[in-house]
Predict the 3D structure of the following.
Amino acid sequence: MATAGVSVFEFAIESEEEGAAFYDAAAEGPAAKADGNLAAFLKALAADERAHAAGLRKLRERMAAKGAASYFESAEVDDYLDAVIRGGLFESAARLPDAAGPPSTIEEFYRIAIRAERSSILLYQALFEQARDATIKRALKGMLADEKRHLSRVVALRADRDSVFAVERFGCMC
């Protein structure tokens, strides 16, 4: 069922901010504290998410200046996009069952990050396909590429640290 009056811009901005908060919190978690490279990686992902939120705000302002403030706001958001929106992208620490802070294990971090990055890819791909404005298409294409890179980097990071995952994912310990 479609959600009336959903502002996809607002949802995407909020999701990017949640992503930045998630990666910042994970950078302060026990796994990152034990591994400076992991902490730096997570902080870089958080910075990317903040840059996406800022870029989306600029796009929203640009569309408002063109008189199209309701771009990506519809009473008839399709069911696919509605499902992505309702599901959220990042699970903030407050939404995690029985959690009081950042992911307590690296496995929990991987589970959340991989699912969130995949959902981000689905969201930006759907928005890209719906966009008609060239500026928005260009921006979404860039964000989509970033999210794909994030997913690849998180998967590679996990494979580097989890030999069972590496064998299951790549057929070898690379």
Summary: The radius of gyration is 17 Å.
